[in-house]
Structures are given as structure tokens and as C-alpha cells.
Request: fold
Amino acid sequence: MTRVLVVDDEPQMVRALELNLKARDYEVDVAADGATALELAAARKPDVVLLDLGLPDMDGVEVIEGLRKWTQIPIIVLSARQASPEKVQALDAGADDYITKPFGMDELLARIRVAVRRTEPAAGGYDSMIVAAGFTVDLAAKKVNRDGRDIRLTPTEWHLLEVLVRNAGTLVGQTQLLQEVWGPAYRKETNYLRVYLAQLRRKLEQDPSRPRHFITEAGMGYRFEP
Reply:
């Protein structure tokens, strides 16, 4: 069974999420503040975290940063904050998805399925290794190694990288990337690509300001060059 950690201090929201998730055979843990969320995540090892940003003891971004110090578990932010900079801040901190309240339960469930699916081993057992100048991408093991050390990627960063390296040397359009990584509802969210490509460059490029491997084709898409 998929275990979900709900982090929210609104009792009505928590109850609605609990009822809907348990009705669909999810196991649910609940935390009303950031400190409890971090403790439960370590103790219960959930498969996905649903996180509100407005918590009583700390900002949700701090929770994301705390989780990202030791785990790549998918984090879906559920927040009433609609400003683009706040979305970008949460994604930049390591969140995998961002849903603005109010939202439809069917949409949330779909996004949970997508987030969990990204962390599952690929069927068929890929055995290909992509070698670039300075780093390697092991598609079978879902690992990236740079200069002799493993590089930690979030599930979304990995999925984006995987799409690009499987199309090495080929321009991958913005719409295609958004649909493959985030789903059809995100076809216009080009700021997601900007944020996540910047993160991949910081982690893998020798000079992120002058990328050699992750090339932007302005207004069209992105290309990976080994």
C-alpha cells in the first residue's frame, strides 16, 4: 500500500484528505506542524508527502529543505499561495509538484499516482549508461555520478534528465517535456522547466552559467549534448 504523509494544520482539509485517501486504500499519517512532519517522515518512511506551506512552527519551504537533506521522497505542495515566486521557491527547494488550493480531489489523486510512479523501478531493466564529460547517467540504476561521487536528484529532476538523455542530441520541445514530466495539465508551465533545468545545471555542469550539456533553444525547448 502507498503511504501518504499529510502535513497541514487545517482540520477540515486534513479530514477531507484522510477520508478520500483511505477510501482508495492509501495509508495516511498526519502532521499539523513542520517538526512533527520531519519526525514522522523519518519514522514512517512515506511514499509521498502532501505539504501545506503555511505551518504554525515553520515555513513549508523549511520542511522541504529538511527532507531533502536525507530523502528524495516525492513532495507535493498544497497551498493557497498563488504567487509565481513562491511556487518557484518551493520547487527550487526540492518540491516535485505544486497544487493551488482549492483543488479537485481527482486531480490530486492523479498527481499522487504520477509522483509515486516516477520513483518506481523502470520495467524491463534498462542497462544503458550515458557518459558525458564530467558525469555519467546510469539509466538502469537511476544514478548520476559526477567526478567520482553520486549526485542526489529529486524524482522530478531525474525524470527530466532521463527524458533529455534518451533524446541526446535532439531538441525536445517545451510542451513535450512538460507533458512527459508533469502531465498534460502543465503544458504552459514553462517556468517549471526554467527552474529544474537550472537545478540540473548547478548539479551537473562544470560552469552552470555557460552550459555545455543542457542547451536552451530559446522559445522552443532543450537539448542534451553528451
About this structure: The domain at 3-118 is CATH 3.40.50.2300 (Rossmann fold). The chain has eight helices and twelve strands.
